[in-house]
Amino acid sequence: MDIKQLTPTLSVTAQLMPADVAQAGAAGFRAILCNRPDGEGAEQPTAAEIGAVARAAGLGFAYVPAVAGSLTDADAAAMRVALDSLPGPVLAYCRSGARAEKLAEMAGALNSKDAAHYDILIVGGGSAGIATAASILKRRRNIRLAIIEPSDAHYYQPGWTMVGAGVFDSSFTRRGEAGLIPRGAEWIKASASAFLPDEKMVMLDDDRRITYGVLIVCPGIVLDWDAIPGLPDALGHDGVTSNYRYDLAPYTNRLVKQFKGGRALFTQPPMPIKCAGAPQKAMYLSCYRWEKSGVLARSDVQFHTAGAVLFGVPAYVPALMDYVDRYGIHLNFGSKLVEIDGPAKTAIFEQADGDGVKRVAERFDMIHVVPPQVAPDFIRTSPLASASGFVEVDEATLRHLRYSDIFALGDACSTSNAKTMAAARKQAPVVAVNALAALDGQPPVATYDGYGSCPLTVEAGKIVLAEFGYGGKLMPSFPDWLIDGTRPSRLSWLLKDTILPPVYWHGMLKGREWMVKPQMIGTRP
Fold first, then answer.
1. Spacing of C-alpha 246 from chain mean position
2. What sequence ranges are listed for the domain Beta-lactamase hydrolase-like protein phosphatase-like (predicted)?
């Protein structure tokens, strides 16, 4: 065969014979596209014959006949649909290859301003996106896969609690994005701006269009600092900090170290937020340091949470209450931070009482703030969104409820599990195998049980290891004799301090599915 490559995903050639199909497959092509009408030549095999051989060899096939010298817009549109639906790379043929090349040009496949096509397109190159891409490529190396991600830096965000506690250096939690993109994946350094699911297309902020066979959406969650008037200007000085930002976690450590007593406030907004235990983690670790330095006795520590309970899974509350009592923390339920005045060191909270909602002003010497969190705008305004604004998916398969070729995971999807890195780590292999099944025209084959983990750092050296799934069901990874997750444990601290960071960098992001192999549908857990 004399093959002419037009793009990385499309090549053309002259008339194929049945014996050529196996050679095309061996050359790495995953689909054959016939542009030559049946009956043009005496020795010409029919499209049905070539299609049968292609399918028997595991290749995709499409028939888009077009008459040489009379190519129409309808032909170009049919060519576009075929190219978007077939797994790439595609080998198109006609009598000489010229007609197939012209049709590709008319369909926009050769125009760099028009849509590039990928078998699997991932929106988001954070924990969920990189882990899913790596898991997919471990299973099918020759797939055409791209990751849309605008950021140059990648962060191990669970480490920011430890940065704020003076345990980790902030640089320990940051690496370059380029070095983490899995081999075999293409990095599209841009931001997604819109979804056109009926056209199997994603629009980028630079007006490029990307088409896909299967789409995976995992761009994370947005920290809405602007939702609290005065907060953006106050952050990083006047005693106002947050472990939810890379550049502020070191300031938390400095504030806690320099604190000599007074009033320290810790806030938690309404759900959903990522790592719902993180607001408390900052508080407990700060109190432990103040206890050790003798400052705690001179301190008024308050926890203001918009929620009605200390933690959403009751089994872990008794252990946490032991530390609330030990540190003398004043709990304020149904207390939502709505405004902050940094120079005046005053925080305004809305609190419900029998007469409605009242505004309460609290002075502070330091305050650790967690901002409200929402789905990204380009998701909330898209056809993919649920009523909550997050990507609407089936909780078990993580497939979109209305688009069978779209999946979502991580903080951006609508599942009711806790939004944690541990959840994304468990979801990634499930989405990987289900996305590959969808690419092959098959239904989902794996299921997610809602697992999430929140290592609650109650003091330096001890953690309450909360592990639970949908409905608050306890899902411990270890037997009780080794780690009882409902009680503080030194082994759990070792897990977070020493074991989990390398598991993240060298396991999860490399497609190594240690303890998170996907649960296949129809098999016993």
1. 18
2. 2-109
Give residue for tokens 């896909």: 212
CB atoms within 10 A of CB 471: 9
E strands present in 354-424 = 356-363, 366-368, 373-374, 406-408
Cβ of 330: how many Cβ atoms within 10 Å?
A: 12
CA distances from 250 to 242, 243, 350, 515 (A): 9, 8, 29, 32
Helix (H) or strand (E) holding 267: strand 262-268
Contact 24, 16 (CB under 8 A): yes
For the record, the structure tokens of 205 come out as 């902020």
Least Cα distance to 271 among 58, 415, 133 occurs for 415
Which two three-digit tokens encode residue 68?
């040489």
Q: Compute the distance between CA of residue 285 and CA of residue 272 in angstroms, rounded to an integer.
A: 23
Shortest CA distance to 452 belongs to which of 464, 470, 434, 428? Answer: 470
Question: What's the rounded Cα separation, in Å, for the pair 224 and 375?
Answer: 10
Q: Distance from first CA to last CA of the chain, Å, rounded? A: 49
What distances in angstroms separate CA 87 from CA 94, 340, 411, one per listed residue? Answer: 19, 53, 29
What does the alpha-carbon distance between residue 289 and residue 256 come to, in Å, rounded to a whole number? 8
* Residues 6+ away with beta carbon under 8 Å from 438: 214, 399, 404, 405, 407, 444
Q: Is the pTM of this model over 0.90?
A: no
Interatomic CA distance for residues 408 and 215, integer angstroms: 8
Selecting among 34, 94, 275, 413, the annotated active-site residue is 275
Q: Which domains does the chain have, with CATH numbers?
A: 4-114 (3.90.190.10), 118-221+375-520 (3.50.50.60), 225-372 (3.50.50.60)
pLDDT, tens digit only, all 525 positions of the chain: 789 988 777 899 999 999 999 999 988 888 999 999 999 988 899 999 999 999 999 999 999 999 988 888 889 889 988 988 888 789 999 999 999 999 988 887 655 445 688 999 999 999 999 999 999 999 999 899 999 999 999 999 999 999 999 999 999 999 999 999 999 999 999 999 999 998 899 988 887 889 999 999 999 999 999 999 999 999 999 999 999 999 999 999 999 999 999 999 999 999 999 988 999 999 999 999 999 999 999 999 999 999 999 999 999 999 999 999 999 999 999 999 999 999 999 999 999 887 788 999 999 999 999 999 999 999 999 999 999 999 999 999 999 999 999 999 999 999 999 999 999 999 999 999 999 999 999 999 999 999 999 999 999 999 999 999 999 999 999 999 999 999 999 999 999 999 999 999 999 999 999 999 999 997 766
Q: Which of 34, 94, 287, 454 is catalytic?
A: 454
What is the DSSP secondary structure assignment for residue 201, as one 8-state letter?
Answer: E
Type and span of the H or E element at 375: none
275 is a catalytic site residue: yes
Handedness of CA 246, 247, 250, 252 (dihedral sign): negative
Q: From the centroid of its chain, how far is CA 28?
A: 30
Q: Which residue has the tokens 């299973």?
A: 139
